[in-house]
């Protein structure tokens, strides 16, 4: 009986696997077509300067508006895009669109903001990446100072020397660099030492329970102090409460990003936010 049951479990497992790989395959086919069909779009989440309380910049976050499944979050399709290499054309499209949109706002007379774009290690390691950045800045007319590239430390970081050199060349172009999701995954302090970045983005997992978990509080205050000693700005991701904000302010965190101020927004909603020049004190009122 037990054997029979085991057999059934195996069968069930197998058919589940088949369904899953079929779903994956369908999703890959859909994703390949998504760009041509205009289903890939960019949302923007404001990044606020804690000193002034004003919007300093925004992170460009990719969205996939699937015709049947609706809005699909990057957590669902970025891993697939990474595996299939589709991340390169998708990521390059997001980069260009974010630069174009930022320049459009500036040409409309809105205050200049820094747009942060996530760059996959896969994309970063493509030959001609520096040229791609140069070309994107030239064709969109965006000031290099108003572009920030976010890189995540990753197990795929094989050629660390190459990454170090690429970051230095990007800095020479005038582009800003941040290290994303710091403190999780494969992050290491030796990377932070070798990658000459402008901003360290403290992962949101440390910001949650910041005011109730002593370990998180210790990690976050240490990361802020360390960044400052290395002449790097500290940005806290995933700030959701006033208590977290007050804590971060007390310890001198430079910038915040999170639902407390705003979720990621479609272009028109983000534009409204910058037109009315929304600042932190209005949110806290
Ligand atoms: P990330 O770069 O760390 O982006 C921040 C994520 O945290 C975003 O998720 C954002 O919506 C979410 N977030 C912001 N504030 C809060 C908050 O207060 N609470 C909580 N719980 N979450 C918050 P999203 O947009 O789903 O993106 C997930 C990840 O997908 C990004 O993490 C990034 O790693 C990746 N990603 C997004 N767009 C791109 C892209 O264009 N290229 C690449 N390579 N990766 C991207
Ligand atoms: Mg990011
Ligand atoms: Mg992040
Ligand atoms: Mg993250």
UniProtKB/TrEMBL annotation:
Domain (EAL): residue spans on this chain: 24-278
Signal sequence, renumbered to the chain: none
Official protein name in the record: EAL domain-containing protein
Natural source organism: Paenibacillus oceani
Full-sequence portion shown in this chain: 322 to 606 of 606
């Amino acid at each position: 009986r037990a054997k029979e049951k085991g057999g059934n479990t195996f069968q069930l497992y197998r058919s589940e696997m088949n369904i899953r790989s079929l779903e994956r395959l369908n999703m890959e086919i859909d994703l390949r077509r998504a760009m041509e069909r205009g289903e890939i779009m960019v949302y923007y989440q404001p990044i606020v300067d804690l000193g002034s309380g004003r919007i300093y910049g925004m992170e460009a976050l990719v969205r996939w508006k699937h015709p049947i499944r609706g809005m699909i979050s990057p957590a669902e399709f970025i891993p697939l895009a990474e595996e299939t290499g589709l991340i390169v054309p998708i990521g390059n499209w997001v980069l260009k669109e974010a630069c174009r949109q930022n320049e459009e706002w500036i040409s409309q007379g809105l205050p200049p903001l820094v747009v942060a774009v996530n760059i996959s290690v896969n994309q970063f390691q493509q030959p001609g990446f520096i040229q791609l950045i140069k070309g994107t800045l030239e064709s969109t007319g965006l000031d290099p100072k108003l572009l920030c590239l976010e890189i995540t430390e990753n197990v795929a970081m094989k050629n660390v020397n190459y990454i170090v050199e690429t970051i230095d060349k990007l800095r020479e172009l005038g582009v800003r660099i941040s290290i994303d999701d710091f403190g999780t995954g494969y992050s290491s302090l030796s990377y932070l030492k070798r990658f000459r970045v402008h901003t360290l983005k403290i992962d949101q997992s440390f910001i949650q329970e910041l005011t109730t978990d002593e370990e998180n509080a210790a990690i976050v205050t240490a990361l802020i102090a360390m960044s400052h000693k290395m002449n790097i700005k500290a940005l806290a991701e995933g700030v959701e409460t006033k208590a977290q904000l007050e804590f971060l302010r007390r310890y001198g965190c430079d910038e915040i990003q999170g639902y407390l101020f705003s979720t990621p927004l479609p272009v028109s909603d983000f534009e409204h936010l910058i037109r009315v020049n929304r600042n932190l004190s209005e949110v806290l009122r």
